Prior knowledge:
alpha+beta, 12 helices
Amino acid sequence: ILRIMAVEIVKVTTNRQLRRFVRFNYELYKDNPYFVPELLSDAMDTLRKDRNAAFEFCEADYFLAYRDGKIVGRIAAIVNNRANEKWGLKAARFGWVDFIDDEEVVDALFSTAEAWARERGMNEIKGPLGFTDLDPEGMLIEGFDRLSTMATIYNHPYYPKHLERLGYIKDADWVEFLFKVPGEKWPKAERVSAIVEKKFELSLVKVKSRSELAKRYGKAVFELCNESYAELYGYSPLTQKQIQQYIKMYLPFADLRLLSLVVDKDDNLVALGISIYSLAEALRKAKGRLFPFGWWHILKALFIKPPKRLDFLLAAVKPEYQNKGAFAMIFNELLGHYIEMGIVDIESNPELEDNKKMQTLWNDFEKEQHKRRRAFKKDLL
């Protein structure tokens, strides 16, 4: 236990404390109309060292800030050794950070995380970042009045101001877009798709079930992500253990109409796009819990009365097929499904602001860049 200026910092060591750690931001944002809680069970599994395959190469500790016996902040301190080795860094990460608007609380949390990083020989700290790129990352700096998504962080406008006060500077920015789905398919997309399909001997995959998807292409989906994202900011390749974990976590819930897979003549996966129904409102109604009745809101959003908005989770294209129109095949197939399903708009996942390859894929859409988020960094030397 470390005391700083009447703020007590407590290291999380029990499951009960971990549950309090996860639930803190639910309480902090309970009256905020734009906050979307993550599922308590998913968050617990991500943070538990016996449940998350990332702990093969990561180390982490979690800290709670108390004042007068009440939780007023939280922070996770992480070292991803795999990412540090890949990028030649000695960098710690901070994540799962939330706090009341109070300088003493913020100073106590970040001084604790920074001291933790120095003890492990790190010379800089970055964040908010998770264990891997599949965890939420980036502090919201624009778009505080827009509904969050299940895969992103929401935070109050005062957060980045406190980080700047503590000497943190920009390391990377992500942008997010809201797209309108047109009323009909585009001849251009169909034409380019047909040309690419013939020129490179590519074809769209037709799978009949989620189990076939997982068995036939599950491993290939995440291996393609490793290859496609290799040079993106802070990326650490997923291990085989992580890939198996994500196959079990995500693919059993995939709606086959909302994903598109492209393979070459040898059935090797070369491009993919995956979207899901927006679960933002369902998660808000469920308050982040499946039980006793939260499951109903999520089930209803997925299968009974789906929303007219989608989250576009990810797109990946094998490097040798990038800029050659492979994504046009995905785009053309998905657009047809979106129109048939009556989808009105699509929200992108965060894209690095300098990832022009990804952003040009959406040029033909009517779109609005409505959010921006930032990874901050600070020199610890």
